[in-house]
Structures are given as C-alpha cells and as structure tokens.
Design goal:
This protein is of the alpha/beta class and 325 residues long. It has helices at 20-31, 63-70, 86-91, 93-114, 149-169, 196-205, 226-239, 256-267, 291-297, 305-319, and strands at 11-15, 35-40, 54-57, 75-78, 118-122, 133-134, 174-179, 181-183, 211-214, 220-221, 223-225, 245-248, 254-255, 273-276, 285-288.
Length: 325
C-alpha cells in the first residue's frame, strides 16, 4: 500500500467488477487491503470473491442505482461498459453507442453528486482516428475508425464530460487511461464475442483443424496482459489525476503471425495455419505510444507476449468448465 497512499484506508467502488479489467483490479485491491464495493449487470460467477466485497447488481444507466453505488465512496475505478468483436460492434451499433454513453455519463454524474474524491476512468485507444502510432494529443485530430466508431464515440464523449465537469464545477479529480487490446484471466472466450487473443486460444484448445486465420498475418497490433493494464490504472489513479489521458499499452507491436505462433505453442496445438488472404488483413499497424505514461506515471509493462499468452492459456484450461463465459 505504500506505493499507493491515496488508497490507504479508503472506500473504493469498482464498476464492471466481473469483467477482464474489473476482476483483476478487485483481486489486486483486496490483496492491498482496500475496502471495496463492486458492481455488475448480472450476478457474479461462482469464483467471484463475494464474501470479501460489498457487491451490487444493477444497471449503471439507471440514475438511482448509480447514486446508490457511488454513495459514501472515496474513490471510483469506472471500468463498466459494453465491449465486443468488430462484428459485434457493427451489428449492435446502437447498443455500443447508447448503452456505453448512458453508463459513463450517469456514473460520472452520480460520482459528482456523491462527492467521490478520486476517479479513474477507463477509456480506450479506439477513440483515435486511423493512425499507425497513437499519441494522446492526436485523439481529436479526426473521426474514430469506422470499424468501432460507435463504442469509440461513447468513450470520446465521456472523456469530454470529464473535461466539462472540470469547467462547470471546478472538479479536477479524474485520471483517464486509454488501454490497448488487453487479455488475460477472466476474459471473454466465447467464440461469437471474444477478441483476437482469447478467440485464438479458444479455437486452438478446441482442436480446430484446419486452423484458418484471416489475412496474411502481417498486421501489427499492440497487445497487453491484464496485470500490466492494472498497473497502469493504479499509477494513473495515484499520480495522474487531472493530467488528461494516458495510453496504456505494451510499448511495442506484435504481428498477427507472432500472436498465432505463440497461441499454438502455448496450447500445444500442432497444426498448420491456413492464412486466408482472400479476407482482409486489416490496418498495417496500430501501436500506442506510452511515453507519457512512462514519464509522468512511471509505468513500465513487464509481461511479454509469449508469457502473457501462456498464463492466459493455463488459466483458461483450469477454468473453462467452471461456468465462465
């Protein structure tokens, strides 16, 4: 706790506590002795530490629930929101825009009414326009990429709402992080909704043959293990209040070929990959510049791709029959 004095003896709310980010943060803060209240839209899974937190089930788009959740809280990690694959984001465009926007604005307004002193808001790198290297000051230089624009606009507007509350109410109590594509334990591995790494892991462990991957594998993406993402969030909560947005990423890019090779190695699925070049490869490169987080927060991601995938595979093997998504 000595590294995070702003958490010592405080009551903290984590929204979206059963998701990828939320569950990792719950475990970390419980280990640090923080008193927690948590929320989720549905009852938590059996492995959630319900006996160690005050857990509330409800919809944060509902103002009355949001105010109950934030009441008497000193701090807030606002991680709740709808996420999904690119296909899901297009098919559920109104949900991605409307629900994410309502959840964010209602929760942030409730936190203001409840007098929450310190807030970490998890945005996303999808707020950026098309560019190879994401830099914080360029987020508003163009529109988000059309592939995930609806969720991105909701996150953008929530970032602006943080700015607007500062202007109107004099609040300077929020840090914003923009994580890259993150994976790890407690991720969503369902084939129809999983993002790239958990989707590949699920397919490999199911023994899928032939193993077909869209494109030629040359596209480069910034991928992050969840423990490194939580490190960034905690550092931003401690040192980044009122300093704007911080990219939270790995500090480098990985080609899809590297990702697929690491997944097959970790799962032991010895199969030839069929690269389907009739399908789109995607944008050539998307990597976050994390210089600002390194310099101002002392952020230093530690888990490399192969280790991160191996840890995730090990967790999924132990838990895939335990009622997880």
């Amino acid at each position: 706790m000595t590294d995070f004095p702003s958490l010592a003896g405080r009551r903290v709310l984590i929204t979206g506590a059963t998701g990828l980010f939320g569950r990792a943060l719950v475990d970390r803060l419980l280990d640090m002795g923080v008193t927690l209240r948590t929320t989720s839209r549905r009852p938590p899974p059996p492995d959630f530490p319900i006996d160690r937190v005050e857990h509330c089930v409800g919809d944060l788009a509902d103002q009355s629930f949001a105010r109950r959740a934030t009441k008497d809280m000193d701090g807030l990690f606002h991680l709740a929101g709808r996420r999904g694959s690119l296909g899901i984001q297009r098919r559920q465009a109104a949900t991605m825009l409307g629900e994410n926007l309502m959840i964010c604005l209602t929760t942030l307004a409730a936190a203001r009414h409840s007098g929450v002193e310190r807030i970490l808001y998890a945005s996303t790198v999808t707020v950026y326009p098309h560019m190879e290297v994401y830099r914080e000051e360029l987020a508003w230089s163009g529109n988000p990429h059309p592939a995930n624009e609806y969720a991105a606009w909701a996150k953008r507007i929530a970032e602006k709402y943080v700015e607007a509350q500062e202007l109107e109410y004099g609040l300077k109590n929020t840090a914003i992080v923009r994580p890259v594509n993150t994976f790890g334990p407690h991720d969503d591995f369902a084939p129809e909704t999983a993002l790239v790494v958990p989707a590949l892991i699920g397919r490999a462990l199911s023994g899928e043959t032939p193993f077909t991957v869209w494109g030629d594998g040359s596209a480069v993406r910034d991928l992050l293990y969840v423990s490194d993402a939580v490190d960034g969030m905690l550092l931003a909560y401690e040192k980044g209040i009122g300093l704007g947005a911080f990219n939270i990423g790995s500090g480098r890019g990985y080609s899809i070929r590297e990702v697929v090779a690491a997944v097959l190695a970790a799962t032991g699925h010895d199969v030839e990959v069929n690269w389907d070049t009739t399908k789109p490869t995607g944008e050539a490169r998307k990597v976050a510049d994390i210089t600002r987080a390194r310099t101002l927060l002392g952020y230093d991601p530690k888990v490399g791709l192969a280790e991160a995938i191996s840890l995730t595979v090990d967790w999924y093997r132990r838990n895939r029959g335990a009622g997880r998504r």
